[in-house]
Amino acid sequence: MRLNSYTIFNLNTRLDKPPALFSIQVGAFKNEPALHSALAQLKLKAPNIIHTKTVVNIEPVVANKVTLYRLKLGSYKNKAAAQSDCKTLIQQQVACFVGNYTQKI
Fold first, then answer.
1. What DSSP designation does 5 have?
2. What is the DSSP string of 12-29?
C-alpha cells in the first residue's frame, strides 16, 4: 500500500527522493485503520504547520509476533532539519521523534 502525498511543513528541508536519511515518527499502530485515523487527526491537530507536500511513509515491523505500522513523516538528508520539524510538531502537542528513513510501503 502506498499512501498519497499529504501536506506538512518545512519545504526547504524535505526531499522528494533519495538520499533521505531521516524521518519523523509520529506513531506506531496495530492496524491500518488506526494509522489512517491518526493521520487524519494529525492534520486536524496541527493545521498551522501543514502547508507543503511531503512524504508520508508506513513502515511495518514485527515486535513480539505482532505487526505494527510505524507512521513516519518527511524525508530528510540532515538530522538537524528533522529535529527542527519534530520540535514544531511537539509545540502542537504531537508526540514525535527523529529516526532513520526507511522506504517500506
1. P
2. TT--SSS---EEEEEEEE
Cis? peptide before 19, omega within 30° of 0? yes
Looking at the predicted structure, is the pLDDT value of residue 49 above 50?
Answer: yes
Query: Is the four-CA dihedral 73, 92, 38, 26 of positive or negative sign?
Result: positive
Count of beta carbons in the 10 Å neighbourhood of residue 104: 11
Q: How many CB atoms lie within 10 A of CB 3?
A: 15
Q: Is the peptide bond before 47 cis (omega within 30 degrees of 0)?
A: no
Measured CA to CA, the distance from residue 26 to residue 46 in angstroms comes to 12
pTM higher than the cut 0.85: no
Q: Is 19 exposed, middle or buried (0-12, 13-18, 19+ CB in 10 A)?
A: exposed
Longest distance between any two alpha carbons in the chain, whole Å: 39
> Alpha-carbon Rg of the chain, whole angstroms?
13
| Spacing of C-alpha 103 from chain mean position | 12
